[in-house]
Design a protein that fits this description.
CATH class of the largest domain: Alpha Beta
CATH topology of the largest domain: pyruvate-formate lyase- activating enzyme
Strand order of the largest sheet: 2-1-3-4-5-6
CATH superfamily of the largest domain: tm_1862 like domain
Bound molecules: iron/sulfur cluster
Number of domains: 2
Helix content: 25-40%
Structural class: alpha/beta
Number of helices: 17
Oligomer: single chain
Number of strands: 18
Length: about 475
């Protein structure tokens, strides 16, 4: 029986979430084809032959792209069992069913995919699954042979002009925190699940054999299980001392586990992505981020001292954002010497409220909600100050132009700063910060990490 697993976009990585279920399905006898539409064309022959087609919905952009792709899949193969799996599958199951989805699996999806395969083999009815599982499951070593080579994916700009081929793996899934805006939360509800350290290292080993020079850990938070994380990076460094890595760690954990940072540095951690979201106390509280403005300042200083650059991410435009608040964010970034560390897109992100978001339950959001937008797969909202919406649009335009014209981060930041000062009624060109005089920059991925973008024309044209 033929299974086709499709990823439309996975933030520039070779998708773990195709390779991992491919291994489990192959182990029970399925013939599995993987198709990563972020870097290759659709495999029409595999679509036509498939008995089961799994579409991986790790996040918003992938979900929008998968919805756009479905009619083509149906045209090529009207009878295949369509499974949507990944975080966004259970969040959007009702809608996905109306457009032709048969099964929906969120959370720990590998066993659910195997269950569908076994049901189909046994001719059992019904084979439909609507499942959100956070059960511990046994993983197999991801099967990466059927995926495009790692050199096709986003690379690491080391910061000194050189680049590295990047491998990607996950040491855990889910999260033990419940930040209200986070799509992990409605699915995992404060739980996280680990993948055995031996398997993680085996997966890294096979990617190094394929050319990986740097490993990106895609765990929602690498220090949800600090003992597990330290075991993995120690083993990694022991076996491959030349390999660097990066991870995502929340501000709260960077403070709480400050004593672990030297270990990260020593084992090759090149940078840490951290979801700061805002520097305004009221917004941090609404989002239930678990950190304060001062915590972020402290963490930025700690990391500078230890020598692991931060790559902070933000959700600067929310229903509660003010123009002065946005200017305070820019000042904070500049004062901390982090201008180069922030991908410009991070200054243009507008809060995304997916279906079933915990934000929908709180009174603060109610005056801002404008109803659910089925096509955009999110709740529409407005800032009651229309001039903040105008500023957001202006910033988005500056960032788009900067990206298209290859403008340096620092120059884009300066333009954003001047625009924001003007929007705040401060009509002068003050830029009281010193910018680096050299071209040496901090390490960053060639594809900036953010998951809530509208699909681009280029992405849609590949479907
Ligand atoms: S810490 Fe990160 S992954 Fe965990 S709930 Fe908060 S935003 Fe989500």
């Amino acid at each position: 029986m033929q299974v086709l697993l499709i990823s439309t976009y996975d933030l520039g990585h070779q998708p773990f979430s195709l390779a991992s279920p491919a291994a489990k399905l192959t182990a029970v006898g399925a013939t599995v084809t993987c198709n990563d539409l972020a870097v290759e064309s659709i495999k029409e022959g595999a679509v036509e032959k498939a008995d089961i087609i799994g579409l991986y919905l790790q996040m918003h952009t992938a979900t929008r792209l998968s919805v756009a792709l479905l009619p083509r899949l149906k045209e090529l193969n009207p009878v295949a069992h369509i499974v949507f799996y990944g975080l966004y599958a259970p969040l959007n199951a009702e809608y996905l069913k109306t457009i032709g989805g048969d099964s929906f699996i969120g959370g720990e999806f590998e066993d659910g995919l195997v269950q569908i395969y076994n049901n189909l083999i046994d001719g059992k009815a019904p084979i439909l699954l609507n499942l959100t599982s956070t059960e511990n499951q046994k993983f197999n070593q991801p099967l990466r042979d059927g995926l495009p080579n790692l050199s096709n994916y986003a690379h690491l700009n080391v910061g000194d002009g050189s680049t590295k081929i990047v491998g990607y793996t996950e040491a855990s899934r889910g999260c033990k925190h419940k930040c209200r805006h986070c799509p992990v939360v409605p699915v995992y509800q404060g739980r996280f699940r680990v993948i055995s350290s031996n398997l993680v290292i085996a997966d890294i080993r096979q990617q190094i054999a394929q050319g990986a020079e740097h490993i990106s850990f895609g765990d929602p938070d690498f220090l949800n299980g600090p003992t597990h994380a330290i075991k993995i990076i120690s083993a990694l460094h022991n076996e491959f001392p030349q390999i660097s890595y990066d991870a995502t760690i929340k501000v709260e954990h960077l403070l709480k586990h400050k004593k672990l940072l030297p270990k990260l540095k020593e084992t090759g951690c090149l940078f840490i992505t951290t979801a700061v979201e805002s520097v305004e106390e009221d917004i941090l509280q609404i989002l239930d981020k678990g950190h304060t403005h001062d915590d972020f300042i402290q963490v930025a200083k700690n990391n500078k001292e230890i020598g692991i650059p931060l790559s902070p991410t933000f959700v600067p435009f929310t229903p509660w954002t003010t123009k002065r608040g946005f200017l305070r964010l820019l000042d904070t970034i500049a004062e901390l010497g982090l201008i180069e560390n922030v991908a410009p897109i991070q200054l243009a992100i507008r809060l995304l409220i997916p279906n079933k978001s915990y934000l929908l339950d709180i009174p603060d959001i109610q005056p801002h909600l404008l109803g659910y937008d089925q096509e955009a797969l999110s709740h529409r909202w407005r800032n009651l100050d229309e001039s903040v919406e105008d500023l957001c649009r202006e910033i988005q335009k500056i960032v788009e132009t900067g990206a298209a014209d290859g403008i340096l981060r620092v120059e884009t930041f300066k333009t954003i700063y001047a625009t924001t000062r003007r929007a705040c009624g401060l009509n002068d060109d003050t830029f009281p910060y010193q910018l680096p005089l050299t071209n040496i920059t901090v390490p960053s991925m060639s594809e900036p990490w953010f998951c809530c973008a509208e699909p681009t024309q280029e992405q849609l044209s590949r479907l």
